[in-house]
């Protein structure tokens, strides 16, 4: 079983930056896709960015050029660098690992407000 623990959320002003981290523990199979999803109040959970075990990445159009997903395999950590944050980026951000299972973290709140 995999456990995913997110951190790094908080309150930031529009135009600011945050970096989210997700530490994975447990058994991770060599073929996987890890990613960040977000859910704003009253909205469905949506994909933000994913990275596969080969290093390929994919981003939602709304965050392209502003967010960067990366990983440190030695630290078993996934990151999301978020720059030029907008009010519309406000949401709970979830870490996800898709392999033989579909595991989720507990989420971290990101609030962008003046």
Low-confidence runs:
none
Which structural class matches the secondary elements?
mainly beta
Q: Which whole number gives the mean pLDDT?
A: 95
First and last CA, distance: 40 Å
Number of helices: 0
Helix coverage percent: under 10%
Helix-strand blueprint:
Elements: E1 2-7, E2 10-12, E3 18-26, E4 33-39, E5 46-52, E6 57-59, E7 67-72, E8 77-82, E9 91-98, E10 102-104, E11 108-112
Parallel strand pairs: 2-11
Antiparallel strand pairs: 1-3, 3-8, 4-5, 4-9, 5-6, 7-8, 9-10, 9-11
Describe the fold and architecture:
- This protein is mainly β and 114 residues long.
- It contains no helices and eleven strands.
- Strands 2, 4, 5, 6, 9, 10 and 11 form a seven-stranded mixed beta sheet that branches.
- A hairpin with a 6-residue loop joins strand 4 (33-39) and strand 5.
- The model has no long low-confidence stretch (mean pLDDT 95).
Based on the model shown, name its key terms:
114 residues; mainly beta; four-stranded antiparallel sheet
Give a quick summary of the entry:
This protein is mainly beta and 114 residues long. The protein has strands at 2-7, 10-12, 18-26, 33-39, 46-52, 57-59, 67-72, 77-82, 91-98, 102-104, 108-112. It is globular.
